[in-house]
């Protein structure tokens, strides 16, 4: 079946054969269908299509629920390389090796199941707006290039989980509850270009063991940081271009010295959020509040 030219039949089921809705050009969309845990799907025939979408997101759809994808169903979806399941109440899913792109944002997702020793090909993973408290599955995904974990329930994180993710170039951990980030030994992510940590609860950012030689954008806005080690910036982020650092608890003397050094390095110290309302700020350096 061609990836770019697929003729679809309107409707969801004909007997037990699931059909693709016709209004998406190059995707096989299945709507008006429910999958829950322990559901017998043996009589259903799923479309053999490389790009599968459950639900009608971003349009309203109260008819489609994919609460769980177990191993039996994962085995039957081996031909699917790109999967979209936004806003379908997904909670748990078994990953299959051929999947290269997964967008499971806006769900109740808390468990992505991987098997040791498998050669997973997943490159793009969007898990934003879910309920993940742990992301140990990352250790099994060495091909990852982008990982979006915005708006989850992460509280602490070991960056050592990313030790094998040497292809990773964008990591979004914003809007969690992260208080601590640790590393077990030196961590080298040679392609990482963007690291987003804003809207967390970090009071310390220890980057002494990081080697992010291609990092260009770092966002630590709206945390609880008091200081930033310029030694670590020089050592860990030698190609840093933009640093968002507003809405923290910077100590004014240290912030002043840090921003001077950032300017000397050609790094833009910027405010990520609107700076018009500065009534709460007794002093600011380059529009960054300090205390």
Automatic annotation (TrEMBL):
<dbReference type="InterPro" id="IPR032675">
    <property type="entry name" value="LRR_dom_sf"/>
</dbReference>
<dbReference type="InterPro" id="IPR003591">
    <property type="entry name" value="Leu-rich_rpt_typical-subtyp"/>
</dbReference>
<dbReference type="InterPro" id="IPR001611">
    <property type="entry name" value="Leu-rich_rpt"/>
</dbReference>
<dbReference type="Pfam" id="PF00560">
    <property type="entry name" value="LRR_1"/>
</dbReference>
<dbReference type="Pfam" id="PF13855">
    <property type="entry name" value="LRR_8"/>
</dbReference>
<protein>
    <recommendedName>
        <fullName>Leucine rich immune protein (Coil-less)</fullName>
    </recommendedName>
</protein>
């Amino acid at each position: 079946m061609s990836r770019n030219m697929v003729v679809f039949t309107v409707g969801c089921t004909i007997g037990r054969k699931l059909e693709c809705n016709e209004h998406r050009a190059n995707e096989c969309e299945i709507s008006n269908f429910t999958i829950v845990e322990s559901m017998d799907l043996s009589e259903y025939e799923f479309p053999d299509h490389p790009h599968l979408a459950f639900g009608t997101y971003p349009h309203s759809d109260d008819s489609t629920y994919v609460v769980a994808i177990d191993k039996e169903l994962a085995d039957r979806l081996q031909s699917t390389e790109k999967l979209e399941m936004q806003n379908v109440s997904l909670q748990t899913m078994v990953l299959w090796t051929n999947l290269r792109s997964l967008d499971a944002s806006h769900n109740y997702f808390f468990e992505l199941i991987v098997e040791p020793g498998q050669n997973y090909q997943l490159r793009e993973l969007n898990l934003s707006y879910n309920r993940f408290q742990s992301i140990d599955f990352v250790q099994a995904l060495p091909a990852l290039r982008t990982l979006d974990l915005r708006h989850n329930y992460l509280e602490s994180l070991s960056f050592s989980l990313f030790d094998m993710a040497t292809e990773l170039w964008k990591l979004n951990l914003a809007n969690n509850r992260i208080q601590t980030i640790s590393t077990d030994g030196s961590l080298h992510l040679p392609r990482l270009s963007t690291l987003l940590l804003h809207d967390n609860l970090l009071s310390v950012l220890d980057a002494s063991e990081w080697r992010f030689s291609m990092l260009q954008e770092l966002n630590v806005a709206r945390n609880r940081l008091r200081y930033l080690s310029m030694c670590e910036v020089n050592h860990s982020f030698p190609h840093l271009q933009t640093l968002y650092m507003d809405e923290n608890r910077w100590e004014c003397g240290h912030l002043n010295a840090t921003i001077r050094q950032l300017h000397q390095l050609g790094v833009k110290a910027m405010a990520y959020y609107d700076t018009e309302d500065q009534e709460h700020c007794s002093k600011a350096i380059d529009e960054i509040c300090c205390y």
